[in-house]
Amino acid sequence: MKIEINGNSLELIVGDITMQDTEAIVNPANGTLMGGGGVDGAIHHAAGGELLEECKQIREEELDGNYLRTGKAVITKGYNLKALYVIHTVGPVWEGNREDAETKLSHAYINSLQLAKKNGITSISFPSISTGVYRYPTKLASIVALQAIIDFLSENNFGSVVLTLYSEKYYDVYEETLKNLTPKI
Ligand code: ADP
């Protein structure tokens, strides 16, 4: 499903985020930026060891040795990936505090988009942040994710945003939400 918002495009696809050839892909990282399981591990594996080296450098230099906070985003090169850049953001772990999780998840999308725009990037692919190991219920996450992206695209001249969902099951949830959020389009 693909829609136009304020001259930008928003598309939902079924696919593997590590294979996307948008200018940037988004990594749902953990705060250490040292890789891990799920999509994070797959992105580091596909990008090669230089990605970890740059992440270590960011931890030391940009973050003064601290973790990347939930909802924040940083950018690296893409190395062996098709994407030129990786934007690393940290989604919230679902612990039942819905309001707090919504704010943090929304910030993860918005901060990633703002960082992309600041770097002149005009196409970006997101996975479904927080809905794996971080246990955020997919339906609730889809509402927050899509509303954040729609709000950003409504206010910015950006380009193309792709949500790369890993299976039909996730795709169907996001598609239903997108239809509900954009009844007039
Ligand atoms: P988080 O820690 O933010 O929950 P995960 O990596 O555990 O992140 O998973 C996030 C979502 O991405 C899950 O819904 C999972 O099914 C999906 N996913 C897993 N591998 C891929 C992939 N290669 N491309 C796109 N999505 C993926």
Textual characterization of the structure:
By secondary structure, this protein is an alpha/beta fold. It has 5 helices and 7 strands. The chain has helices at 38-47, 49-61, 98-118, 138-155, 168-181; strands at 2-5, 8-14, 24-29, 73-77, 85-90, 123-126, 160-165. The protein has a 7-stranded mixed beta sheet, with helices on both faces. The mean pLDDT is 97.
Descriptive keywords:
185 residues, alpha/beta, 5 helices, 7 strands, binds adenosine-5'-diphosphate
Largest sheet: 7 strands, mixed
Number of helical elements: 5
List each distinct ligand once: adenosine-5'-diphosphate
Q: What fraction strand? A: 15-25%
Low-confidence segments, ≥5 residues, pLDDT <50? none
- Specify the overall morphology: globular
Mean pLDDT over the residues: 97
The tally of strands reads 7
Structural class comes to alpha/beta
What is the radius of gyration computed over CA atoms, rounded to a whole number of angstroms? 15 Å
Cα(first) to Cα(last) distance is 12 Å
Order of helices and strands: EEEHHEEHEHEH
Residues in helix, %: 40-55%
Strand order of the largest sheet: 1-2-7-6-3-5-4
Short description:
The protein has 185 residues and is α/β, with parallel strands linked by helices.
